[in-house]
Amino acid sequence: MNDIIHLLPDAVANQIAAGEVVQRPASVVKELLENAVDAGAANIQLIIKDAGRTLIQVVDDGKGMSFNDARLSFERHATSKITSADDLFHLKTKGFRGEALASIAAIAQVEMKTKQADDSVGTLVIIEGSDVKEHAPTAAQDGTSISVKNLFFNVPARRNFLKSDNIEFSHIEEEFNRVALVHTDLSFSFYHNGKLLLQLQPSNFKQRIVSIFGAHFKDKLYPVEMTTDVINISGFIAKPENAKKKKSEQYMFMNDRFVRHSLLNYAVETAYTQLIPEGYKPAYFLKLEVDPATIDVNISPTKVEVKLQDERLIFGFLNSCVKKAIGTMSLAPQIDFDGESALEVTQLHPTTDKPVFPKTGANPNYNPFESVSSSTRGGGAHGDSWRKESGNLSGWADFLKEIKKESDNISDETKQHSDNIFKEQPSEELAFDAKSSFILQNRYIVLKLNDNLTIIDIVAARERILFERYSDSLENQPVSVQSSLFPETVTLSAAGAELLLEIKDELLKLGYDIEQIDRTSFAVNGVPFGEEASAVQSSIEELLESYKTNLFLYRSEKKKNIALSLARQKCSRFKPFSNDTETEEFVRQLFACQIPYTTPSGKKTLCVLSDNMIKDMFVK
Ligand code: ADP
Ligand code: MG
């Protein structure tokens, strides 16, 4: 038999490798920028033409290469960054695989000029489709300039896969951002078709974010900070109301390398649960530092994926420090006229159903997330402790004051923002005069809170109040049942009866004493205090309907589903407030909630127009 196996020529092997490393112009941008950073450059220029199709050039003032290295750098597995496999776990550089330049040179026309500071002449290397055309001394600046022309000139199939210039350009921009964001001590400039798009001076992380994404980000960012033995976390997260439905700015860096890690992303996003509507994405810019020995970045050719040794631990730290940061944010969302975030509006159906509000104190240790998993207030040890400590703190004035006090201990940015919302208080009383409030369109409470105009959506606010109250009853303190002398009978479909049996015990905690008579009928022996027993058939049918609809979303969170279903059912039925005291009581109830400013599904309960915002409205 003839032997048929042979080694592939280098040029072919390189082209195959290039398939993994270079998918599009943006991949070249990433590799060249990373090489410039690894070379210790202080100034890096990115110059592209036609969204990178015809030219991608990176010029740096880093350490440059010797005559021989300049040629060797285009060989596969040629690297100066590691010497043994062990080095993989002490990485300080972006690159280490030694395949980027070889891959790029296999599928483009590349020209490199490089010079080390100590040398009097530099080196020119021209290489096309792995074929070295020139390797000669030349006059050059200190540092390295690499031009990659006509990408995929010899691989038409790949060229045809490229998308429109706009799409390719946005990929390039994204790669540029990923490098420029984290290397804040370096200067970057970015040119497209001869036009300077961005010039970045050395700065701090926040300034860099703002320089890249725009000044409007300045007030949206909240600092995140945590130092432990295992991980250091720093950076910024954006306020919940700045979450976007589509693409959002989500940047996570691990040891200065942009990484994608679905679990860590989840750790951040899940901290926003209840605060942003489902499907929305919060923006974040987080830097994580861990011992390089505990991570493996060598699991994909582009080194964006990363494997972590202490995955769960890091998840926990990240999740808790993001929650903490969100907890310190202002409670009052700014008015946001973004059409996308406008959500459905429930209609008012005033009935005789008089709201009975729980007597709750304010939570001085406000952190909306202490009990997120159970979706209740006071579920955990922390919740209990604030109850005890809160003593006779009965109103939202104290509550807001506490928040303000807390915010004094936090960083300047947070403090400044809180101060804007919770302006200096004379002393005891928060400037809220119920008499000056009024009800608009039978739906909104308009009131002055300090110097801020605050508008509360009664239905949404009531949904939040009831949700927390029901959750509390389910988790901690069942409400008392008002026994009926003549039990009502409720008859359901077979499927409805099944569902009711499933949640019967929970309903008892909410004050509905229900007993099965036969397969589909039930006796209602008692209802919650204040509820009409005669309305119970329709109440239960509606409740079951909503519970069923939510089943998919809250499969594993039965109590949350029940609390939510009941709160939604009841929130739109209420008697209008008959006097200012009732209005005030309602507002107090809202601010005694763990998360007063959104409904459980993330819809806003209130909006605040600060004096500055009002002033701005009158600027021409
Ligand atoms: P890697 O970055 O994984 O080592 P590359 O193919 O990207 O592999 O680069 C190969 C080598 O060429 C690098 O290890 C480095 O020594 C050298 N090199 C590449 N780009 C530059 C640059 N801009 N300045 C100095 N040296 C560079
Ligand atoms: Mg490299």
Overview of this protein structure:
The chain is elongated, with a radius of gyration of 31 Å. The longest helix is centred in the first third of the chain and has 18 residues. It is built from 18 helices and 22 strands. The strands form 5 sheets. It has an 8-stranded mixed β-sheet with strand order 5-4-3-6-2-1-7-8. It starts with 9 loop residues before the first helix and ends with a helix. The chain folds into 3 domains: 193 residues, Histidine kinase-like ATPase, C-terminal domain (Heat Shock Protein 90), CATH 3.30.565.10; 116 residues, Ribosomal Protein S5, domain 2 (2-Layer Sandwich), CATH 3.30.230.10; 173 residues, Ribosomal Protein S8, Chain: A, domain 1. The protein is an alpha+beta fold and 620 residues long. 40% of the residues are buried. The site of adenosine-5'-diphosphate has 23 residues, from α2 and α4.
Q: What fraction strand?
A: 15-25%
The tally of domains stands at: 3
Helix content: 25-40%
Biggest β-sheet strands, sense, barrel: 8 strands, mixed
Average the pLDDT over all residues and give the rounded result.
Answer: 79
Strand-pairing-aware structural class: alpha+beta
The value of Rg in angstroms is 31 Å
Spatial sequence of strands, sheet with the most strands:
5-4-3-6-2-1-7-8
Number of strands: 22
Helix count from the secondary structure assignment: 18
CATH topology of the largest domain: Heat Shock Protein 90
Low-confidence runs (pLDDT<50, min 5 residues)? 330-430
What is the CATH class name of the largest domain?
A: Alpha Beta
Please report the distance between the alpha carbons of the first and last residues: 88 Å
Shape label: elongated
CATH architecture of the largest domain: 2-Layer Sandwich
